[in-house]
């Protein structure tokens, strides 16, 4: 059995109940952005081409640094180790342990073998590790811990019956020979597990073309060059960890892996940004707020070389954005939005002072090769929303993933055959998020669609009420609920 046996084909996906006339309206109202990028080349191939042209620093962590040539060689040694452990094209391999350059090399090694990456995050309990390994059908777990194996990984692997190979074994292996086993653009590349409503995680499968398209989306929108250094801060179980590890490597840039201990200490984090000339950072808004708080207590601007701060994973409060724009004017602020199921971000928005007049900050416009549709459902049929109307966001284009691994019911709930355009994936993803297109052009996020309520026949978005209350300077966090009482 291969991973493809656990995925639905496009022909097996449901179709939206939408009329031909509304399909045409939706096409005319769609937000789209086409951009020519090379989706065919494997990242490891690009790394080796850069190394051959002009070897330069590629990745580093707190223990060591590798050039492009050294990274490619280590990736090929890991490929030899994994192939010796029985890994074949199409197999799923877990990578877990300390975040380090070894994780990045392992990710590239799997590209050489044509295998899929799934993270085994050390912040998970052992039962979740075991559940993820079993659901993904993991062949082997590659452990990056320099000393003893993290207990939850050892316990989880034992429960799942998965063998472990250690990064300490890599040095004794000969480099693997041959080109990357990339058979097609729609070849599954990684599986990331998201929380399920039943408590059981769902494995979202992303294709090679979706992953690479998202990497180029970051390069295009951030104007990335070989001089950029990206901070790798996200735990391995979060989708943003993928682009943080890989994106700079297709552009000649550098990745700096920052430990959890340093990432959670805002003062130490800022010192690393400054000392290592880091130019691009992505954090959840809560961490952006803490960073601003700690920097305000320091003398001078400790992160003067930072070019971009990306906020993601949570709604970006207007007050946090206001502080960033006024206190850190040297670095642009990007509000990023996207689901794991669509290769991470599908919109970017560079925040401006004029955005602060809105109740909620815009989430932006589509990243490259992405199509966005705002639809509303009435009497079991879908209709295209005009500008300013609230509807549900659907995503089409290159980034849309393959669905949930071995979970056909959940796949059919969220993925549809695309009725609008003949894109590479031919799939459409239903986000479950309420949005509207602002008069100025970008999308505005309004909350989950299941948080829309009717009071005395009037539809209300609880998220909009929260946004108004959040604007008060004395309010740090707010949640609005509806409580029915008898009269």
From TrEMBL:
It comes from the Bacteria. Residues 50-405 form the AMP-dependent synthetase/ligase domain. SUPFAM superfamilies: Acetyl-CoA synthetase-like. Gene3D superfamilies: 3.30.300.30, N-terminal domain of ligase-like (3.40.50.12780). InterPro entries: AA_adenyl_dom, AMP-bd_C_sf, AMP-binding_CS, AMP-dep_synth/lig_dom, ANL_N_sf. PANTHER family: FATTY ACID SYNTHASE, NONRIBOSOMAL PEPTIDE SYNTHETASE. This is AMP-dependent synthetase/ligase domain-containing protein. The lineage of its organism: Bacteria, Bacillati, Actinomycetota, Actinomycetes, Streptosporangiales.
